[in-house]
């Protein structure tokens, strides 16, 4: 065999050995492991955000935080929270989390912190008087109260013996928007009906308690805890005893200064007339009933 052919053969054997060793090394390494992130972008408050405020772009910022010290339900992009309403107060530099926007388990109250100079007072509403029982912590509400005719009896006095007689047939119903801009500090809802599948599980809020869940027409009751002044507490108690009251849901934007864009603790109340039957007739054109006289034909004599 020629020397050149022998050299080619040796080179071929060497390359085959190198290739075999390379295959063995690659097979022993196994699949590459994905890198685990140790830091993630996190949305935090750039300034204090009061309860019930709709988040604006200048109130939040993005920071990188270590995964070990980051809330599991924190958001990673500011677009996920801008425009949402905070259901608990947020301090500057605190992370914005899912709990910030939901207030935790809606329909349950673990603690109430009354603002200074205010009182916390609860009222009970249903799906008709309480905006479907979907009122949430941080919302602003008004209260309209109605009193029926029996609360305003019309009487005539007898000058001889000072006795009086109640005049019947007069409509004495009166309705008035009494309180405006009260803030909700918490709500209570009944647990859902127990079933065979969940008898051993902890009670959860009824449908409609959390954001995005459906509310069924089932006559559900709700307790709404309000921050009120001393005078407002007396008005509410009177309405609870002798009247019929309903809560009206307000927009959070009504409590933002249009110039400074800062939150307002109170607003100038809207002026209303109150409503009685005469107001409906005189101002809104409701037609009162009229007596219709019917003349019967003369009856013939028997």
The succession of helices and strands, N to C, reads HEEHEEEEEEHEH
Strand order of the largest sheet: 3-8-7-4-9
**What is the structural class?**
alpha+beta
Gross morphology: elongated
Q: Rg, please?
A: 36 Å
Spans of at least 5 consecutive residues whose pLDDT stays below 50 are: 201-211
How helical, in percent, are the residues? 10-25%
Let me know the largest β-sheet.
Answer: 5 strands, antiparallel
Number of strands: 9
Mean pLDDT: 82
Count of individual helical segments? 4
**Proportion of residues in β-strands:** 15-25%
Termini separation (Å)? 157 Å
What does this structure look like?
By secondary structure, this protein is α+β, with helices and mostly antiparallel strands. It has helices at residues 3-29, 98-102, 230-242, 277-284, and strands spanning 39-45, 60-66, 119-126, 140-147, 154-157, 164-167, 174-188, 221-228, 244-249. The relative contact order is 0.14. The model is unreliable at 201-211 (pLDDT under 50).
């Amino acid at each position: 065999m020629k020397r050149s052919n022998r050299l080619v053969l040796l080179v071929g054997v060497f390359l085959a050995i190198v290739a075999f060793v390379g295959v063995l090394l690659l097979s022993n390494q196994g699949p590459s492991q994905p890198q685990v992130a140790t830091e993630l972008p996190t949305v935090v408050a750039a300034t204090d955000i009061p309860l019930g405020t709709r988040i604006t772009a200048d109130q939040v910022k993005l920071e990188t935080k270590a995964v070990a010290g980051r809330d599991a339900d924190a958001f990673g992009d500011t677009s996920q929270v801008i425009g949402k309403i905070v259901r608990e107060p947020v301090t500057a530099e605190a992370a914005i989390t899912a709990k910030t926007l939901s207030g935790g388990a809606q329909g349950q109250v673990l603690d109430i912190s009354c603002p200074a100079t205010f009182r916390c007072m609860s009222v009970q509403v249903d799906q008709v008087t309480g905006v479907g029982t979907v009122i949430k912590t941080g919302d602003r509400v008004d209260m309209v109260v109605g009193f029926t005719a029996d609360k305003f009896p019309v009487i005539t006095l007898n000058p001889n013996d000072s006795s009086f007689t109640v005049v019947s047939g007069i409509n004495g119903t009166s309705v008035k928007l009494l309180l405006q801009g009260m803030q909700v500090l918490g709500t209570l809802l009944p647990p859902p009906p127990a079933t065979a599948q969940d008898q051993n599980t902890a009670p959860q809020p009824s449908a409609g308690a959390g954001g995005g869940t459906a509310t069924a027409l089932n006559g559900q009751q709700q307790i709404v805890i309000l921050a009120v002044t001393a005078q407002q507490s007396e008005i509410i108690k009177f309405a609870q005893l002798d009247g019929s009251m309903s809560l009206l849901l307000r927009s959070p934007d009504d409590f933002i200064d249009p110039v400074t864009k800062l939150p307002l603790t109170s607003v100038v109340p809207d002026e209303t007339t109150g409503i009685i039957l005469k107001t409906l007739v005189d101002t809104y054109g409701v037609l009162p009933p009229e007596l219709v006289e019917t003349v019967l034909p003369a009856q013939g004599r028997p």
